[in-house]
Amino acid sequence: MTDDLDDLRAALKAAPAPDEDAKTRAMRLAMENFDRLQGSHEASRSSEDRPRAAPLNGVRRMFQYLTSRPALAISTSAAALLIGVAVILPVADLRIGKPVVPTEAPKEVPVAKKAEPMVTPEPAPATTATPTGGEGATLTAETGNTAQSGADAAPKPDAEVVATDELARADASDTASSAVVAESAPEAEAPMEMAEEAAPVSPPVGDLVMGAEPRLRAEAKMEGGGTLGYLAAPSTSIAAAPEVMPAPVENTEAYSNEAPNPVKVTAEEPVSTFSIDVDTASYAVVRSSLTGGYLPTPEQVRVEEMVNYFPYAYAAPEGDAAFASTVSVMPTPWNPGTRLVTIGIQGALPEVAARPPLNLVFLIDTSGSMEDANKLPLLKQSLSLMLAELRPEDQVSIVTYAGSAGLVLPPTAAKDRAAILASLENLSAGGSTAGAAGLELAYQVAEGMKADGEVTRILLATDGDFNVGIDDPEGLEAYVARKRETGTYLSVLGFGRGNLDDATMQALAQNGNGTAAYIDTLSEARKVLVDQLSGALFPIADDVKIQVEWNPATVAEYRLIGYETRSLRREDFNNDKVDAGEIGAGTQVTAIYEVTAPGSDALLNDPLRYGAATATEDGAGELGFLRLRWKAPGKDTSTLVETPITGQEPASTETRFAAAIAGFGQLLQGSVYLGDWGWDEAIALAVANRGEDAFGYRIEAVNLMRLAESLSR
Amino acid sequence: MLMDTPDEMLATAAAGGDRAAFAVLVGRHYDRIHGLAWRLTGVKAEAEDLTQDICAALPVKLRNWRGEARFTTWLYRVVVNAAHDLRRRQATRLRAAQGWGDWEIARQDEIAVQAEASDWLAQAMTRLSPELRDTVALVLGEEMTQAEAGVVLGVSEGTIAWRMSEVKKRLRAMAREDAK
């Protein structure tokens, strides 16, 4: 890897020698401008405060700046005064970032209607119209042909408004513009008049080459000349030099997903086994994509996490039971020939006052990539929100990792909020990510905070970047899996996009007996860390596994919707060594099967000619048999709960809403099982069953569906 | 005598109107500006244009010279900003001209063309986001320390460190793809 850098260094060092002519020309230009400037002491605009951030920020700022017509007029006339040019402003189109078709571009003529609209070009595709040669400016000037210059003319105006050029921008700050204008007035006048008369006049080539003319004047004339100028020059090299284009920031996100579960034939594989999954990260990622204006990719969609994002009002467990399961059966919304079997698990909500003391280790990624507003700053806000929910005897400590891992805040009682908040506030991004070292330190700290009867949890907050010191994700997972034996839980909070290593987050949370949540907004932080704090932090059942044995007499085919990353082998169900998901206090988990009865039109597989129908004496007429295994937190042996699925269980608005969300997820995945069922049906189903929805999560989902519908057209 | 004068003194003198000092200063740094311009743009013709623009603007820019930083640091910042402006102009032009769909198609086409060009450097640089490219140009091309590069780009040293590790990651990914 050092080789790569060395190669790059060597390649970069081999800069081509500057052209002597160009150098002489530039030097002379510099000297002339220097001479011209003497005596004029208008300060130019500082370049020091110029974009420190990415070029794209500048573009964004520019869009903001262009939002009002007066602002436009001012900036335009400043530019026009200086360079005397007709400027075309495709304002509205620019603002909403819509394509501007070259033929439509030259509509508005600002600058006090002085100039004629430039040219109406042939609607030539700009890619082909863009000259490929490096001498494009001159070339264009000479030919002055409409198609060519028209194509150039269309994009040019905004380029000018954005920045005109280095000099104009430097000088045009309000009054300062007069400095140069005043000096170069005689030269600037003439071309301006030219522009008034008729725009598309090709100036003499000599002007364009800028050899003899000082740059300031040269520009003025060229721009006055109408359709081209030295501003056109950069564009000509775009085709030749894609590497200077603002390539979108390369996305290094990694997602963990498997192909959707296929339909299984009960006669061949009557038993379906999986671990519950209480993660919600996928829904938040989907939401962040949709509100960002693009459809999530199928691998970003994990249906079970979308379904489990929402609270459901399932029957609460009775007595001391850790959880209750509710089964319901209803016709499948997207397929009249099948039925949906929904298994809802409701965790018990122990009295909040009785909850054990909590030891929390915030393991915070402070690498350079966390600098964005939706990362470290949001993280700080989120954790401050959560702090208010803690009780005085709870303990908090903060470990950061970046460059070197460090203990920022030794274990501190939650009642000392000021100290905790101060440490949070002092966190700043910088350095590479040394995730492994940080994790080790966090486990050490957690170990030290542990006491009998207390819950210890590490909350890893990251954008998912573990890029230094750990080239071995499996090693990290194994480490976390070993550490989970110590009883410390590990939850992962994902922040930001672009770098999100969802796969690693999932792996860590699954192996660390924790949950993975993705936090994209402060309200999501509130949901995860405040509203559902007890569920997120206090497990009531560990290693919860679900096994359903389907009755071939009543179910010919079945399909588990989602849970692809959570499937277990049949024999793992009874093996207490095999890890599975945890249920937090008061949380719900929902799993949905789509089942097809024998003889139904909706069967996808033909019956086997020689397949013998299995005779079932017991439980004839039952759809299947549900087995649940779970461990009390910290215990090694599991408890088995068995319930028959009779097929008579009624559906409720809760399960119908879950079905709507499952449909939503499958629509996003482009599932083949939905037939003609589309967005409108999903929306209608969700709206009809949104229930009380005190927090508005469900109506938000409906709006996301509408958004997805529009985006998918 | 002027030949031995430090940049900073020359710049101060030039800002005060000393023609000879300005001439020496530009002469001394033209190659440096051109080098960085090339590293930032990757195209010789464009680097030349950009350098010329910067030279032409330098007398005005020097008005802002306060002698607070090393002259080269200040100058690098001027060059980087000019390159950013250039990119921005190109971005806006392109987008306004073609619309997102065509723009993306054109971009992909150009990336494809670029890949065929088998110019390793161009390929490597194309993989990097503009921020990473700037960082690489300064740290590898100009052999600045991460702290210096941070000052020029206006970000923290840690961010530069992270960007460089990011660059390594991309290069490794590229090497892997090439190996296939």
Provide key terms for this protein.
heterodimer, A: 713 residues, alpha+beta, Immunoglobulin-like, Rossmann fold, 3 domains, six-stranded mixed β-sheet, five-stranded antiparallel β-sheet, 16 strands, 39% helix, B: 180 residues, mainly alpha, Rna Polymerase Sigma Factor, Chain: A, Arc Repressor Mutant, subunit A, 2 domains, 0% strand
Report the major sheet of chain A.
6 strands, mixed
Name the beta content range of chain B: under 5%
Determine the N-to-C terminus distance of chain B.
58 Å
Tally of strands of chain A:
16
Topology pattern of chain B, helix = H, strand = E: HHHHHHHH
Mean pLDDT of chain B: 78
What count of domains describes the coordinates of chain B?
Answer: 2
Total of domains of chain A = 3
Q: From the alpha carbons, calculate the radius of gyration of chain B and give it in angstroms.
A: 18 Å
The largest sheet of chain A has its strands arranged as 7-6-5-8-9-10
Low-confidence stretches of chain B: none
**If helices are DSSP runs of H or I spanning 4 or more residues, what is the number of helices of chain A?**
27
Total number of β-strand segments of chain B? 0
- CATH T-level fold name of the largest domain in chain A: Immunoglobulin-like
Query: Can you identify the CATH class of the largest domain in chain B?
Result: Mainly Alpha
CATH class of the largest domain in chain A: Mainly Beta
Which percent range describes the beta-strand content of chain A?
15-25%
CATH architecture of the largest domain in chain B: Orthogonal Bundle
The CATH architecture of the largest domain in chain A can be named as Sandwich
* SS-based class of chain B: mainly alpha
> Quick one: overall form of chain A?
globular
